[in-house]
Amino acid sequence: MKIFQQQIQLSRRRRGFHLITSEVLQALPQISEIKIGICQVFIQHTSASLTINENADPTVRQDFEMYFNKAVPENDPDYVHDDEGPDDMPAHLKAAMLGSSVNIPIRNGRFALGTWQGIYLCEHRNYGGSRSLMITAWGE
């Protein structure tokens, strides 16, 4: 069994959904040593999230942003947690809906993603700053 782990800092991104698959792969090149295994990518933040979805058409990412803004609006008068601005509590809710980690199978030293799949960083804050990821891969 081989186990590899790397923490990386993603540069600050604007609010929205951003493909980061290549950055994850660049951060942990040892994935190429694993024939059969799993890679977990975990975000160490509560107002951004990760998911896997369409990697070809950028309008999918635009529609994700539109949908989540409608589903979890800003400036809801019922929010109690609003010290950091009107996007703060909605960002936490969006992150809870999407999740803090993704697991990707590894096969023959490569991610076994579907043809049109990629890893998204889902930035839910207007000014979220850089984001830390913990990437762990294990297998044989």
N-C termini distance: 5 Å
Q: What is the correct CATH architecture?
A: Sandwich
The first-level CATH class is given as Mainly Beta
| Total number of beta strands | 8
By CATH, the topology is Jelly Rolls
Major sheet description: 5 strands, antiparallel
Q: What does the overall shape look like?
A: elongated
Question: What does the radius of gyration come to?
Answer: 16 Å
Estimate percent helicity.
10-25%
Mean pLDDT: 97
Structural account:
It is built from 3 helices and 8 strands, in the order ββαββααββββ. It is of the alpha+beta class and 140 residues long. It has one domain (2-139): Sandwich (Jelly Rolls). The strands form 2 sheets. A 5-stranded antiparallel beta sheet has the order 1-8-3-5-6, with helices on one face. A hairpin with a 2-residue loop joins strand 5 and strand 6. The longest helix has 14 residues, at 58-71.
Report a brief summary of the structure.
The protein has 3 helices and 8 strands, in the order ββαββααββββ. It is of the alpha+beta class.
Please describe the topology of this protein:
Layout (H helix, E strand, L loop, with lengths): L1 E9 L5 E4 L1 H7 L8 E8 L4 E7 L3 H14 L16 H11 L2 E7 L2 E2 L5 E7 L7 E9 L1
Antiparallel strand pairs: 1-8, 2-7, 3-5, 3-8, 4-7, 5-6
